[in-house]
Recover the amino acids of this structure.
């Protein structure tokens, strides 16, 4: 008799809390969804009051009941709550710009304040441009806020106007055979990949020749200083790297010409056309494309190819990003690749 009355009491309590959910405004189907989460979650939702979006949040396959408090605390649409909570984003406010930035490709949460500052200065830009520019550090002036590059990254060592490799010398330099180019050196993997690529090109009747490769720190000092005699520094910086900041110093770069041609005519060569379609298959990327001048900070160089390995070269080509952005997103902030 006692057992039965306890059971009746329990049933009454359960029925009653469901009544309260109904009173708040939840439908019968919604109450079933809420009840499936267990008593504790149900109490929290009851206390929170009616929330049309929370049912969508709970019904999403990525919903995590252990984060229920956080989902409930945000007065946002279901998809935004799921994004913010599931990715662990914390922001001062979740206004339209912040949420739009968070949804943008290659968004790096640690850079949110920089995106917002840059957007405020450039309201004409769309969110993707803002993210791209800040990822490439273009919100900082050249050669300010410089970072010492991690030279243990091998084929993914970065050198640009924000990352210096200082007086780095590649560990395994090999001499370029005169059949392929000038009297100079390249990183071994880069050279082997280049030889495979050049052999394929020449087998197809396309001539190509390396006119510049690894440039040691000291020779970049000489080159840069000679340019300074000709042009003011802000002009020189648009076409030549400062010593310690040159892609060539990584040992993983070739500047190419057609025999008889020069850098300026390379864009019109059969070699250039071929490289546009096939360079990535050998691990090379066009480092300074014509449509990315704003991001790379370098004028278009149809002749300058950087070795990054096949996988990364393919990703960069397929996704139309620069190595600078790839580095910010996948290497520096260590997002899971692809
Ligand atoms: Zn070059």
């Amino acid at each position: 008799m006692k057992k039965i009355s306890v059971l009746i009491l329990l049933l009454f309590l359960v029925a009653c809390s469901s009544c309260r959910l109904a009173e708040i405004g939840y439908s019968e189907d919604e109450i079933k969804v809420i009840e499936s989460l267990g008593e504790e979650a149900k109490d929290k939702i009851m206390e929170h009051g009616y929330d049309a979006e929370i049912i969508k949040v709970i019904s999403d396959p990525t919903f995590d009941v252990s984060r229920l408090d956080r989902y409930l605390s945000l007065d946002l649409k279901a998809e935004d709550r799921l994004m913010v909570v599931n990715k662990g984003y914390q922001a001062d406010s979740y206004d339209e710009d912040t949420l739009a930035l968070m949804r943008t490709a290659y968004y790096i949460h640690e850079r949110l304040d920089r995106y917002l500052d840059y957007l405020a200065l450039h309201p004409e830009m769309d969110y993707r441009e803002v993210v791209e520019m800040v990822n490439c550090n273009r919100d900082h002036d050249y050669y300010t806020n410089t970072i010492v590059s991690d030279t243990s990254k091998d084929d993914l060592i970065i050198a640009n106007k924000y990352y210096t490799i200082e007086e780095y010398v590649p560990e395994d330099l090999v001499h370029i055979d005169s059949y392929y180019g000038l009297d100079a050196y390249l990183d071994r993997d880069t050279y082997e990949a280049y030889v495979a690529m050049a052999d394929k090109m020449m087998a197809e009747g396309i001539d190509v020749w390396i006119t510049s490769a690894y440039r040691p720190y000291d020779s970049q000092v000489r080159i840069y200083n000679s340019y300074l005699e000709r042009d003011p520094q802000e002009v020189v910086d648009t076409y030549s790297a400062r010593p310690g900041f040159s892609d060539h110093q990584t040992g993983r770069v070739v500047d190419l010409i057609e025999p008889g041609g020069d850098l300026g005519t390379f864009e019109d060569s059969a070699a250039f056309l071929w490289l546009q379609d096939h360079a990535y298959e050998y691990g090379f990327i066009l480092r300074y494309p014509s449509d990315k001048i704003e991001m790379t900070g370098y004028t278009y160089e149809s002749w300058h190819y950087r070795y990054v390995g096949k996988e990364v070269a393919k990703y960069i080509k397929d996704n139309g990003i620069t190595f600078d952005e790839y580095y910010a997103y996948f290497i520096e902030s260590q997002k899971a690749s692809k």
User: Anything to note?
Assistant: The mean pLDDT is 93.
